[in-house]
Design brief:
It is built from nine helices and 35 strands. The chain has 543 residues and is of the alpha/beta class. The longest helix is centred in the N-terminal third of the chain and has 12 residues. It has four domains: 164 residues, no CATH class; 74 residues, Immunoglobulin-like (Sandwich), CATH 2.60.40; 192 residues, Rossmann fold; 58 residues. Strands 15-14-16-17-24-23-22-19-20 form a nine-stranded mixed beta sheet. The protein has a six-stranded mixed beta sheet with strand order 4-3-35-5-6-34, sandwiched between helices. It is 15% helix and 35% strand. The C terminus is likely disordered.
Length: 543
């Protein structure tokens, strides 16, 4: 409800209307996205209402209906839902009790045109520079000219004017190839929460990858795991130092005929602590033995080897391995294939599939790590997969982990869980700070890394530093979700069968006419799906 009506921001105006229209002797319960005021009166919560702030939490009307329903009362329940109807759903407005006397008040926004900054990503990496892409979306009128500015910390790096010939606009900026901790901003007459997009760029650290198998069969991996991005090495099984495995981000079992028990135990621990495991079977592998190994990690089993040629024809474009690889879905590529493979029975959806819909590549999560399993050998005698362009993004992305690299721009409200490289002592604590406030996130030491979870922290959009004993060790940036930037997505038509009022005063007139007992509980739900922007400190916007 940051949109503006005739008398200013809808949220602020709604609060003022509550203060002006709710009778002083009236008891009620008020729910917002983040707070509950139970069995209170308007005078008791006047200060809290006047200081109410925007929040990143989405208001779940159905959840609050459930709370109201759990409060037993011999009297009727009057419910007032105040909503801008952005993102309102049929499911959310379904009342668990048909006897409720429910009213909807929909404040009207006068200015619906809005431009949002939706994303920032690295378009390409040059020798000494990053070319970054800034994506803007115009909701409503597109014949606008906007100033766009790029800042590193508080230093202005670039500034330009842009116009919209289409709804979406992509702007390219070239910046030095070094750490970046800043934001891009625009100025428009619409919402303010989506006018700034914070992001950090950290120089990627080399990832450690080991493959276990014969040198000849592993040569293709050297073309993928290049020295500029990876510390890659291959060991034959007899020469493997098991102590090296815990230092890796990814371990590849490349066509091992047998997997020793000691290696199985080590790999199970490795995956559970956040490592990636890639399994490529050998045609000489015993499928029952391989099933026994993989079953300790996930629900995957192998049938007996089938010697018939099959083409790999389907890509799961929505899978994290590929969702940023292809600009559009395509069926027009040269299909690789295999001459033989093990049928895979799995509860996980395939990442790459054969023409008969059976799995060629399957992946799943185990603990903090990921496991990827091929159904057949990919050496040149059994497959031409090594010659297919799809092999590069497949193996490259399988070796990535949850360490924050490249552009770091997390969305507040999402499940933001990631790892950082940090050697902590038992009593060391990681904190997150932005110069004005500091928080201690949920954290867990995993080998030489720390798992961080930003769950339930009252974080505002902005740039933050991750600190170890007050020393910065990593930069991160946080932004509010843009899902409510389009003010034209008003679902008020869903309320055609409900009592819809134009203002709060008319609701109270109706309630006082219907009920004369001033002690009857009144239930008010201050509902704004635009509260996805909520908990934004007002002074942030002033700044």
């Amino acid at each position: 409800m940051q949109a503006k009506g005739q008398k200013g921001e809808l949220l602020k105006r709604t609060v003022q209307e509550l203060l002006e229209t709710v009778p002083e002797n009236q008891n009620f319960t008020l729910y917002t996205a983040d707070e509950s005021f139970v069995n209170t009166d308007i005078k008791s919560i006047q200060k809290e209402l006047q200081n109410i702030k925007y929040s990143s939490s989405s208001f779940q009307l159905d959840n609050h209906f459930a709370k109201i329903n759990s409060k037993k009362s011999i009297l009727g329940k009057d419910i007032v839902v105040i909503t801008d109807a952005i993102g309102l759903s049929q499911t959310a407005i379904k009342k668990p009790d048909s006897t409720w006397n429910t009213f909807y008040v929909i404040p009207k926004s006068e200015q619906k045109n809005n431009v949002s900054i939706d994303s920032v990503f690295i378009q390409q990496t040059l020798d000494n520079f990053y070319e970054i892409n800034v994506t803007l979306t115009a909701h409503g009128k597109t014949d606008v000219e906007l100033p766009v500015a790029l800042y590193n910390k508080s230093n202005l790096i670039a500034k330009t004017l842009t116009t919209f010939d289409t709804k979406q606009k992509n702007l390219l900026f070239t910046i030095p190839k070094e750490d970046f901790h800043g934001y891009v901003s625009i100025e428009d007459n619409g919402l303010t929460y989506d006018n700034t997009y914070y992001f950090s760029i950290t120089k990627p650290e080399k990832l450690n990858v080991i493959s276990i198998g014969t040198t000849v069969k592993s040569n293709f991996l050297t073309r993928i795991y290049t020295p500029d991005e990876f510390n890659y090495s291959n060991y034959e099984l007899a020469a493997l130092d098991y102590n090296q495995l815990e230092k890796q981000e990814t371990v590849i079992l490349n066509e091992l005929e047998e997997i020793p028990n000691a290696l199985q135990i080590t790999l199970k621990s490795f995956v559970g602590k956040g490592g990636n495991l890639i399994v490529i079977p050998s045609n000489k592998t015993n499928p029952q033995a391989l099933t026994q190994v993989i079953r300790t990690l996930g629900a995957v089993s192998f049938g007996n080897l089938e010697s018939n040629e099959k083409l790999i024809t389907k890509i799961s474009f929505s899978h994290p391995l590929f969702n940023s690889v292809f600009e559009k879905k395509t069926d027009n590529f040269q299909y690789p294939g295999t001459k033989s493979n093990f049928p895979v029975n799995s509860q996980y959806p395939p990442i790459l599939s054969y023409q008969d819909q059976s799995a060629f590549l399957t992946g799943f999560q185990n603990g903090f790590g990921k496991v990827y399993v091929f159904s057949g050998a990919i050496n040149k005698e059994n497959s031409n997969f090594q010659n297919s362009p799809i092999i590069v993004p497949t193996f490259y992305n399988m070796a990535q982990n949850s360490l924050l690299t490249g552009v770091v721009a997390l969305t507040i409200g999402n499940s933001n869980v990631f790892f950082i490289d940090a050697a902590l002592e038992k009593d060391d604590i990681i904190s997150i700070a932005d110069g004005e406030q500091s928080f201690i996130p949920i954290q867990q030491i995993v080998n030489n890394k720390v798992k961080i979870a930003l769950t339930n922290l009252p974080l505002d959009a902005g740039n933050y530093s991750i600190l170890k004993k007050e020393t910065p060790i990593k930069n991160i940036s946080l932004n509010f979700d843009r899902q409510e930037s389009n003010l034209f997505e008003n679902n008020s038509t869903l309320l055609k069968d409900e009592n819809v009022a134009t203002n709060l005063a008319s609701v109270f007139d109706t309630l006082q006419t219907d009920r004369t007992d001033q002690q009857i509980w009144k239930w008010f739900v201050l509902f704004a799906l635009l509260f996805i922007v909520l908990e934004i400190l007002i002074q942030k916007f002033v700044k």
